[in-house]
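Posting for a labmate who doesn't have an account.
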Amino acid sequence: MADRSLLKPKRLKPGDRIGVVAASSPFDRQTFEQGIARIEAMGFSTVLADGLYDQDGYLAGTDERRADQLHRLFEDPAVDGIVCARGGYGSLRLLALLDFGIIRRNPKAFVGFSDASVLLANFYQRSGLACFHGPMVTALATAEAETVSALFSALTGGARIRRRSQDGETIRPGTAVGPVCGGNLTVLCHMLGTPFAPNFAGHILFLEDIGEAPYRIDRMLTQMRLAGVLRGVRAVVLGNFKDCGKPADIGRIVKQAFSEEKIPILSGVAAGHGERNLTLPIGPTAKLDADKGLLEYQEAATEE
């Protein structure tokens, strides 16, 4: 990102067409259709990628087919934004097949989380595209109203997004300013040692996860620290760590991982796996005030 400015996608409006891509695992058809209904209730129409219902074992079709879905949706001028069908596993396998120039030439709002953290990180750092860490189609099926409204506001509104810690903790006080990056800890860790490993230096790092015991959280952060990718991080924001043990244990582990940096660390932002998954832009600059429990973006994530 040092050699190019941030590309902001077009602000969506009711009536725009949202493409749906299956970049990871297969999904339950009924749950998917319920999620599509939530998107259409927002006022959008949907475009389903060719091969969306394919299945290749634990993948939603072959790698080539899923990569082609992404290319076609980004290149289609009739598609205004793109949302992932679900997470699971599979996005990592697509990275060597993707033409990041296509994404750069056709900037569009792209939404996903969990396994899609692979795509968010690389669309941002390789294509320069501001993306959205937010609920996917199958997650929208049962999402609470605040999750749905936060997604709609992020895609259609021009206001700067503010996210407060909910029942969280100021793990280390202080303030910091920088572009927001990150996502699912496990997925980010799996990119280490590859040409697609993200660069966190100079960023506010957002992390979340599900079903990982505290010692595994420790192991992943230790690996990342030893690999040098945590060097230069300006601040850390912790989202939902569902079924990962006590929040206090997670906070202690993260504080230890950044014991030398003395940077602000805040937990309790409702984003990622959990009952509330409030959309966070990836790429735009924000200010973290850990004392006030506030992550406040300094710029809009979209443009007219």
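Reply:
Got it, the structure tokens are right above this. DSSP finds nine helices and 14 strands in the chain.
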